[in-house]
Each structure stands twice: as structure tokens, then as C-alpha cells.
Amino acid sequence: MYKQILQRISEEIDWMALMPLLLFFIVFAGVIIVVFAQRKGHFDYMAQLPLEEDASMNEPQS
Fold first, then answer.
1. Is the model's pTM score more than 0.90?
2. What does DSSP assign to residue 51?
């Protein structure tokens, strides 16, 4: 019985449809690892960037 079920599943699964899912999972896991590997100080620095005044913005345009 199990042999028939496994054989039927292997015939019906489209392996090419699983490739994008696998690729998505790998990329998603990679992003999660990179995010959690960053130091908190980096996120604080990046959060403050839009609030800092840029010296070049205070200069008159030519």
C-alpha cells in the first residue's frame, strides 16, 4: 500500500514547481540569518540617518 502511495506521489509531483519554493526558502532563511547577525548598534545608526542634517543640504545651490 505504501509503495503504491509513494509511487503515485512521485508521478504526480511537479518537481519544477518545487524549485521556486526551495529558492524562496533559501533566500528567506538567508535574510533572517543576516538580520539577526547584525549588531543592534548598526540598526540604531541606520534609524538615525534620516534625522541627521546633511551639510550639503544647507549650502546654496549654484
1. no
2. G
